[in-house]
Amino acid sequence: MTFQPIDKSRRFLQVSRQLRQSIFNCDYLPGQRLPNERVLAETFGVSRIIIREAVWDLKRSGLVEIKRGAHGGAFVQEMKHDAVTSVMRDFLNLTEARLFLEPAVAALAAERATDDDVKEMYKYLEIVPKVQTDEYVRWHIGFHRMVAKASQNPIFKLQVNILLDFAEDMVLSLRPKDRILHDTTSHPAILEKLSQRDAEGTQNLFYSHLLKIKPFFESWEKQFGTTGLIRSKIQ
Predict the structure, then answer these.
(1) What are φ and ψ of residue 76, in 5° steps?
(2) Does domain 8-76 have CATH number 1.10.10.10?
(3) Could you give phi then psi for residue 65, rounded to 5 degrees?
(4) Dmax of the chain from CA atoms?
(5) Which CATH number applies to 81-224?
(6) What is the pLDDT of residues 21-36, one digit of tens each?
(7) In this predicted structure, what is the pLDDT of residue 120?
């Protein structure tokens, strides 16, 4: 796979997640060694310290084993239940936080959005990227960022964008390439409620919209056998 340059504000986590994706995509097979620190540092455009932190993050997740010596390095391990569970728990916690925060922020946006905010969002939704691409995922998340901005609360905007930064990385890393997580109708429906200044309606639609990610977890349960991991909190 082709790795992407790293935004310095989220360096080792971005490196770690791109390496996770390469492992889940079987670009690196069990027993195979990852490129050395120097090569990875040059590839991602970060320091070797950042690479070291990213590799240790993979080790903590049970995805690689670190061997010392002249022939050492980070070697991909057999996919274990604990490793997949760790990744899915991260995604679960992230989704739970988004379900708690984003609908409430959307309700504020319905009350506080300026006419220019609303016009900008309508214009944004007019151009839909081709489905089943990374651009399509970023387009969806971009709308969420615009809603947070329209709340006119810079603290909420910051909090939502931090969650969305992690969500974007994880979705792009983990989603199957032959499927998407959201349709093209949910955002226009949310924006319609928002433009009508219907705070409760906007909040409810936004919550339902986020729940549509649940089938993603279910597909992972079937693929990796992570039964019971997500049933209690995302209903």
Answers:
(1) -70, 135
(2) yes
(3) -115, 135
(4) 66
(5) 1.20.120.530
(6) 788 777 888 889 999 9
(7) 97
